[in-house]
Structure formats: C-alpha cells, structure tokens
Specification:
single chain, 175 residues, alpha+beta, Immunoglobulin-like, elongated
Length: 175
C-alpha cells in the first residue's frame, strides 16, 4: 500500500515539473537571440504617444544601434548611449501590434508594440441631471377600507395575544 502512495506522489511531482518547465520554441529562424538585451517601454501606448527604446550594451553591441518599426521613424542609438525615444504615428491602428526591430553589430532582434484604443478628443455630451420626480406613487394611492380594517384587526389581535400570554404566565408564577 505504501508503494502505491510513493509512486502516486512521484508521478504527481514529475507531472507538475513538466508543466512548469519553459516550453522550447522551434521557430523558423528565431531572430531574437542577440548578444544584447533590448525593450520598448511602455509596451502598450496610444497613437501619438512617446516610447523609450532601451538597449543594454553588456553583451556585443558596442557600435551604433538602429531601431526600426512601421509605426515610427527609424531611430539611431549612438555608441555610449543605451536609450532613445520615438514618437508613435498618429495614424497607428488601435489594437494592432507592430514589430520593433533592434539591430546592432550584425545581430538583430524584435519585440512587439501594442497600440491602445483611442479616446474621443471631444467629450461626449452628458445629459443634464435633474432631481427625482416625487409623488404619491403607490405608497398611499387608493385607501381601501377593507385592507385598513384587516391591518387594524391583525395589530389588535397581536397586542391582545401578547397581553393574554403575559397575564397567564404571571398567574402561573404566583401559584
């Protein structure tokens, strides 16, 4: 019986490790393996916004780096610098993901830049807020003598029953 528990725990552990291990990606020529690190901050921006193009020169990028994309003009990062900025085109499609390619020293890699949805330039008109229309409504509309008499009888009956039970209990306590 103990062997079944140990085998089950081992199988569960191996399964958990299998699902948490990073998946290998076999693409058609993975072009994001570069001797330098790069990123675009923020990775999601509205059309017309400004992004920072960051380059980490620890690895193999010592010369001039070129950053290209279909959503902004080509940017050059000179040697000794590790960042630059770019203005996103106003006509960028909301929801689209554009490739941003970093090239330096014969190596190149790309990352995505997502364009956020546009907000309207002019605010939409908000209807004027007015007070609540108060009135009789259904609270007192249509006094019905039968319903009033029935309510009064129920209240009188409950008060009478409470009085009777309190008097009866008091009499039994005295004996």
């Amino acid at each position: 019986m103990r062997a079944i528990r140990v085998a089950s725990a081992a199988l569960l552990g191996v399964t958990a490790l299998t699902f948490t291990a990073p998946a290998a990606f076999a693409g058609d020529g993975d072009h994001n393996i570069t001797p330098f690190a790069f990123s675009v901050q923020p990775s999601t921006i509205a059309a017309g916004g400004q992004v920072s193009l960051l380059l980490k020169r620890d690895g193999g990028c010592r010369g001039t780096a070129t950053v290209t994309s279909g959503v902004f003009d080509t940017v050059t990062i000179p040697p000794g610098q590790s960042s630059a900025t770019a203005m996103v085109d106003w006509d960028a499609r909301p929801g689209a993901v554009y490739d941003v390619t970093f090239s330096c020293g014969g190596a190149s890699g790309s990352t995505g830049l997502t364009i956020a949805g546009r907000r309207p330039v002019t605010p939409t008109p908000v209807p004027l807020q007015r007070g609540v229309r108060a009135g009789v409504g259904g609270s007192v509309g249509g006094f019905d003598p039968k319903e009033i008499a029935m309510g009064a009888a129920l209240i009188a009956g409950s008060v009478g029953a409470a009085w009777y039970l309190s008097r009866r209990r008091g009499a039994s306590d005295e004996s």
